[in-house]
């Protein structure tokens, strides 16, 4: 049995202007603020001599690798992302960037915004357009019902509203 895993499929290359700004802020924070601080800590730890038992040095180098990896990812990803800042011509249907009012089978209401995979956060109402529910909602209109297969069985979602902010 090998350890090979095929690479994951890339997510949609779309992002909202707010999401792109958050990624740029993260890149700037990592590169301009956090990396110089960790580099100074590693440098000071290296001056102490024995590096084999120096926790600041060992964990600082590990953190530098994590920062550099994230910086490389963000730089590549920001280059290939397309910022979607216009609304579709048919605003009566659900497309990228739409705020959606949903009602589940129990009658509970939920509000989500359809965003790119790099910025989804269900706690803040941001639903990825690549998620099963996001894909099921694309192209639908208020008044439609969406059926989604889940491990617990099929769930039903009623679309109450769709608006573009």
Description:
- This protein has 165 residues and is an alpha/beta fold.
- The protein has 2 domains: 14-83, Transcription elongation factor, GreA/GreB, N-terminal domain (Helix Hairpins, Orthogonal Bundle), CATH 1.10.287.180; 99-163, Transcription elongation factor, GreA/GreB, C-terminal domain (Chitinase A, domain 3), CATH 3.10.50.30.
- The protein has 3 helices and 7 strands.
- The protein has helices at 17-46, 55-80, 132-137; strands spanning 14-15, 82-83, 99-104, 109-115, 126-128, 145-150, 153-163.
- The strands form 2 sheets. Strands 5-4-3-7-6 form a 5-stranded mixed sheet.
- It is elongated, with a radius of gyration of 22 Å.
- The model has no long low-confidence stretch (mean pLDDT 93).
Per-chain topology:
Elements: E1 14-15, H1 17-46, H2 55-80, E2 82-83, E3 99-104, E4 109-115, E5 126-128, H3 132-137, E6 145-150, E7 153-163
Parallel strand pairs: 1-2, 4-5
Antiparallel strand pairs: 3-4, 3-7, 6-7
Helix pairs in contact: 1-2
């Amino acid at each position: 049995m090998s350890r090979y895993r095929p690479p994951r499929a890339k997510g949609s290359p779309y992002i909202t202007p707010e999401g792109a700004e958050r990624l740029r802020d993260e890149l700037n924070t990592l590169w301009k603020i956090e990396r110089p601080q960790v580099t100074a800590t590693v440098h000071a730890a290296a001056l102490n001599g024995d590096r084999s038992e120096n926790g600041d040095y060992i964990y600082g180098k590990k953190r530098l690798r994590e920062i550099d990896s994230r910086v490389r990812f963000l730089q590549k990803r920001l280059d290939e992302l397309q910022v979607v800042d216009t609304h579709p011509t048919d605003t009566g249907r659900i497309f990228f960037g739409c705020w959606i009012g949903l009602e589940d089978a129990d009658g509970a209401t939920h509000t989500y915004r359809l965003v790119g995979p790099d910025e989804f956060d269900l706690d803040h109402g941001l639903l990825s357009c690549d998620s099963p529910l996001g894909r099921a909602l694309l192209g639908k209109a208020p008044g439609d019902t969406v059926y989604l297969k889940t491990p617990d069985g099929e769930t039903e979602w009623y679309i109450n509203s769709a608006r573009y902010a």
